[in-house]
Write a structure and sequence with these properties.
- The protein has 2 domains: 1-53, no CATH class; 72-131, no CATH class.
- The protein is built from 4 helices and 3 strands, in the order αβββααα.
- The chain has helices at residues 13-26, 54-63, 93-106, 114-121; strands at residues 37-38, 41-45, 49-52.
- A hairpin with a 2-residue loop joins β1 and β2 (41-45).
- The protein is elongated, with a radius of gyration of 20 Å.
- It starts with 12 loop residues before the first helix and ends in a 10-residue tail after the last helix.
């Protein structure tokens, strides 16, 4: 078995320690303790655990040269129809596909974006300018 990264969480520290000991006795691994940034997710611990993808979102905006974009409070217009044969094909479909995959990963924390991302992900294989 090969696992690159794993985070173990539980309220009972004794159980977590027992599981870690079991894993160490059966597999080669290292304990990184409490993660601060893990697979694009920021983890903050105090009285509980708070997770965020703020850095992930900023990196995504920088990558697409949209760091100064105008923020919108509401979701995409649910009545806007996106069709497979609208306008010209997008010149670089691999860029669109990569962006959609990153946006899908963003829905781990931002489930409120699922409607919009699901709508535009339907055109991953043949994206158009409007998409």
């Amino acid at each position: 078995m090969y696992v690159e990264d794993i985070v173990i969480t539980r309220n009972d520290e004794t159980k977590v320690a027992q599981l870690k000991q079991h894993l160490c006795s059966n597999f080669q691994n290292k304990d990184l303790r409490c993660p601060k940034y893990f697979l694009g997710i920021e983890v903050t611990q105090s009285k509980g655990i708070v997770i965020s993808q703020r850095i992930y979102k900023l990196d995504l905006l920088k990558e697409r040269d949209m760091i100064d974009c105008i923020l919108v409070d509401g979701p995409m217009d649910p009545n806007q129809e996106l069709m497979a044969k609208q306008r010209k094909p997008f010149s670089y479909p691999e860029i669109y596909t990569r962006l959609i995959r990153k946006l899908i990963y963003l829905t781990i924390i931002r489930s409120d974006l699922s409607f919009e991302i699901d709508g535009i992900s339907q055109f991953m294989h043949v994206p158009r300018i409007d998409h």
